[in-house]
Structures are given as structure tokens and as C-alpha cells.
Amino acid sequence: MSIEDVTSSVPSKRASSALQMAPRKKASTSDPLVSHGRHFGRTVFALCNYPSLLTNGILRLEQMEDTPLEDFSAEERREHHVFERLLESHPGLLERLKNGSDEDILHVGELIGKGAAGARGDDTKTLKSAVLDWIVPQGEAIQPPLHRNSKIDRGFNHDLTGFLLCPVGLDWNDTQTQENLRSGELWVCGDQWPIFVYAHHTYDSEDPWNGLLRSRLLVCAYKHVFTSPSSVEKEPKATRSGNARLHGMNSVTAASIAYIATQVRFALSSSSVFSRTDTTTDSETFYHSLLDVLEDPDESKEVDELLTWWNRQVFPTSSAAKRRVSANSALSKIRQKRLALKQLQV
């Protein structure tokens, strides 16, 4: 569903949907909200117009005194959910917004947006080079070589990146498919997921959840961004805390997986600038299509299993990883005994 096509029965005073990338603006002065925006963009919602999100959210709170949220459009409900997540993640923000002028609200949004855009830009820059280390087995060279500082030979122009970006359901080994993708005759929409998002680059059309978003490439990129570049090789060597620790993050969010997948897809592409007007990568549609599945209540069982798997990869010592109890440990014996007592009482 296109964001711009969504209509609303509520007054038109609000701006268009905030859940799309905002125009580039001049950076504001440093503020704690900038740092908060960096983390929020990576973990909750990346491609967002934050000034509009805040303005729309405040006005919607007033309208909800007479109109229940259920009466708003699906896109507006989703936008309000993101707004509420932002308020929850930054205590005191709601009061600051309510007591501030329109200019204050816009300024807060610009600060958060600056952080989110800055983080996205930093990640785009570092992954551009780093991704080349993960797409072939360690010690092997990419043939023909790919340049670290230029992307012109990536995308469907190269056999390896072309294979990884090839939409599931298409056969990259088919010469005609390759030619059509390279020429643009076969246009790939953002909701046509590439094979690299699947474990072992294997897609099962009968069970599309099997291996979805569990590829080694995604895990490498996730660790690179959230825990530290050195943690990708198991043994962290960084002297500074990674982004996750800096923000008290000890579990993976669904949105952060979608964010990393979007970054990796862009890094493999031949596009040089991350932009919502770039129809070649169609990054915004790709990101939204993943969120549509990951936030769908009907998919909650599969998503919960996916998050547990991810937490074991990235935060293995966290309670969110749901660690298995060792078979012969004292803890397992205590639980077995407790279970046996409960069964006797039934």
C-alpha cells in the first residue's frame, strides 16, 4: 500500500504520512536527542520524517479525545504506534512537546531526524566496504574483483552480487534472466526479496518462512553495526562500546533486522546514493515490506522464533536468547523435580 495514497477522514491540517524519508536538511547543533535518534532509527523505524511524525502525533492525540484510534486509517494507526514508541523510549518527551511551540516541535523532530539520518549514512559508508569481506568464504578472493570505494560494478553487473540480489523465484543461473536484470527489462520491485535474506541462499516456495532473515551475511552486518566491527569474527577487539551497549540494547528488534537487510541490499547494489527517489534499489518499499511481515500479528509465532534465533546469534547471554538448560545440570534436575511434583498434584 502506497503511503501517499492513504486518505483520512480526519482534518487535513496534518502533513502527509510521517513514515517516509524526509528531505535532507542542514544539520542542527548537537543535542542528546540526536544520539537518541541514531538508535531509534536503527531499531524502531528508519525511514521516517520525524518533524511530521511529532506534529501528526500531537494533533492525533487531541483528535483521539473524540475519535478512537480504530477509526483512523491503517497507515495512520501504524504511524501513531511509531509515535508512541518514540515517546516511550524518551521519558519527558511528551511533556516537552505539549508545552512547546510549533517551532519547538519541529526542532525536536529535526534533531531526532538528524541522528537517524546520520546513523544511516555512517552505516551505509562502512558497510559499503565491509560487505565485500562476507560474501565469499574467508581467504577466498572475489572474481572478478570488486572495488571497495566504488559500486558501479556491483548489483546485477557482477555475477556474485547479482546472484545475492536476485529475487527469490528467479534463477540467476539462467542466462536470459541475467540479461533481463542487467538491462532493466526485468525490473525488481522492493517487495521482491533477494536470495541473500535466506539462510544458505536457499528459498523454499512451499515454506517461505524457512530460513527467512537468517543468513550469515545479515548476522555479520548486524554485529558490525550494533556490537562492533571486530565482533563479526567472534572475538571483539574494539576498545569503545558498540552501539548496542551505548544505548542499553540487549535484544534484537524486528525493525533492526529489517534495517540491516535494507543496508546490506543497498551495499550490494550499484546505486551510489541512498535515496527514496532511487527506483533502482527501491529501498523504502523493501524496508516497509519486511516490516509488514515482521509486525503482522498473524505471523507472531514465526517472528518470535526468528527473534529468539537472532538473540542467540547477537546477544547469547541475554535472557531474550532463551538459553537451553544443560541436560545434566543442577538447574535441569531442580526443574525436572518441580515438574514431577506438579504432575503428582494434578
Give an overview of the whole structure.
The chain has 346 residues and is an all-alpha fold. It is 48% helix and 0% strand. The chain has 13 helices and no strands. Mean pLDDT is 87; it is low at 1-15 and 25-29.
Task: Give the arrangement of secondary structure elements.
Layout: H1 32-43, H2 50-63, H3 74-89, H4 93-99, H5 102-130, H6 159-165, H7 175-183, H8 216-226, H9 243-246, H10 254-268, H11 283-294, H12 300-314, H13 330-345
How much β-strand is present in the residues?
Answer: under 5%
What is the global morphology? globular
The major sheet is characterized as: none
Which H/E pattern describes the elements?
HHHHHHHHHHHHH
Q: What is the number of strand segments? A: 0
Counting H and I runs of at least 4 residues, what is the number of helices?
A: 13
**Termini Cα gap:** 51 Å
Q: Could you tell me the radius of gyration in angstroms?
A: 22 Å
Low-confidence stretches: 1-15, 25-29
What is the average of the pLDDT values?
87
Helical residues, percent: 40-55%
Give the assembly state of these chains: single chain
Question: Helices and strands: which structural class?
Answer: mainly alpha
Q: What attributes does this structure have?
A:
single chain; 13 helices; globular; disordered N terminus
Short description:
The protein has helices spanning 32-43, 50-63, 74-89, 93-99, 102-130, 159-165, 175-183, 216-226, 243-246, 254-268, 283-294, 300-314, 330-345.
